[in-house]
Amino acid sequence: xxxxxTERITLAYDEATVIADLSVAVPEGRITSIIGPNGxxxxxxxxxxxxxxxxxxxxxxxxxQAITDLPTREVAKRLGVxxxxxxxxxxxxxxxxxxxxxxxxxxxxxxxxxxxERAVARALEITGVAEFADRALDTLSGxxxxxxxxxxxxxxxxxxxxxxxxxxxxxxxxxxxxxxxxADLNRDEGQTAxxxxxxxxxxxxxxxxxxxLCEGAIYAAGTPHEVMTQDxxxxxxxxxxxxxxxxxxxxxxxxxYQLLTRNPSQESRRTR
Length: 272
Fold this sequence. Notes:
Blueprint: E1 4-13, E2 16-26, E3 31-35, H1 42-49, E4 57-62, E5 65-66, H2 72-78, E6 79-82, H3 94-100, H4 114-126, H5 142-155, E7 160-164, H6 172-189, E8 192-196, H7 200-206, E9 209-214, E10 217-222, H8 224-227, H9 230-237, E11 239-245, E12 252-259
Parallel strand pairs: 3-8, 3-9, 6-7, 7-8
Antiparallel strand pairs: 1-2, 1-4, 4-5, 9-10, 11-12
């Protein structure tokens, strides 16, 4: 498995610092959700972990090596990345999209092979995409398209998947479809997954580990029961909420009932 962590990273766009001096470790073989309000740095952190954004300071480490020092092809063999709202050329089929996941394994001396065919076929089968593999992506439902993109990441045969808001713009049924697929991959394949999610209840239901960000710093990190608390919801999201437990799996679920006025002094309650 690939070990992924950050050491005191600072991330910025132009002169605007989004995250400062942040250290975080991703548990191997588990599902981790990054949660927090809009603009807190969730997607920025994920982009840095995926080597799509270079830190101004600090280091992202992949198996103990600075990710910025590794060749792009080597990183792509270890990390599969599903960006927010991914785009593909018009007319591309689900099978052709999945095949793109094999590009990191190609070289001048190693062209398309039977092992590539097997990897793509397996990715299509695992994600349930095989039945519509030869249809164009723009003819598929939202959930089917997300599964096709996940198939591409699986075809890379990486140990870890990084997903930026994989359920955004999907209805309830398609959200469930994607999250159940990720849970199956984790259980059956041992796949490490890190995802940015806005739906706190889904994050708690499907994750082993949660990271709550507030204004670019870690407010809390741990199991869903440790992170999903009334204090966290009050301080991070500015809402009063009751915490109940899912009758099926016991995960904490929040029921917001009052919006609060955000108080900057609450920052002192965060843990770094």
